[in-house]
Amino acid sequence: MIDVSQEIYGLIATRNRPMLTALDLCIEQLQRLPSGDPAIQYSLQCAQKAVEQERHSQARVVIA
Question: Could you give the CA distance from residue 8 to residue 39 in angstroms, rounded to a whole number?
């Protein structure tokens, strides 16, 4: 019997890899900007949190 939910999560993880690459590039650019701007810091924190959550989600797919 095929675990359809696992297959679906795997497809989602594969599809989200380009998003992670884009977020990594955004994070690199944000880190190069002046750190005193609260909007930059907020954007950086949001991007880092999104990457963290997606990588955690993808790790569960591989393990499960």
Answer: 36
pLDDT in tens, 35-62: 889 999 999 999 999 999 988 887 776 5
58 to 9, 13, 38, 48, 52: CA distances (angstroms): 8, 6, 30, 15, 10
Dist CA 50 CA 23 (whole Å) = 8
Residues 6+ apart with CB under 8 A from 19: 54
CB under 8 Å to 3, separation ≥6 — which residues? none
For the entire predicted model, the pTM comes to: 0.73
